[in-house]
Amino acid sequence: MSAATSPTPAVHTREQFEFIADAPLDLAWPLFGADAERAWAPDWHPAFIWPVPATDEAGMVFKVVQGDRTAVWVNTALDRVANRIQYVYVIPELVVTVITLNLRPTGPATHVAVTYERTALADAAGETVKQMAGRDKIAGPEWALQINNHLRAGLGR
Known about the structure:
This protein has three helices and seven strands. By secondary structure, it is α+β, with helices and mostly antiparallel strands.
């Protein structure tokens, strides 16, 4: 295939952010499960397909309405030994997203590193994927505020 007839590479983005969760790892870890996240993320409404009733476990599958589309999510890692959590979600004809969280204890708190990788599924989706990546890049302070407000309320601080 010549360069002139090669398909256009899909738009692919990779954005990272980090923040500190003001709680020890044992308290912070469960909050990044899809079911438990409902407690601190006001716009998070997963509809579980498996398991039912909803519980946070490796391999969970759920749907999330995003605008006028529905994303299908799969948990691909819920590894407490490695302190790594990963989700993959697909919005058909638009994007595949891989979200990886790495948690690390830092004394009385938890360091959280989040990576979003997005790949457009159609040429027309490229601009939308770039816009999503722009929001990913600046999401750290919002995540930190929401989770730390939840932790403070729960710990009576």
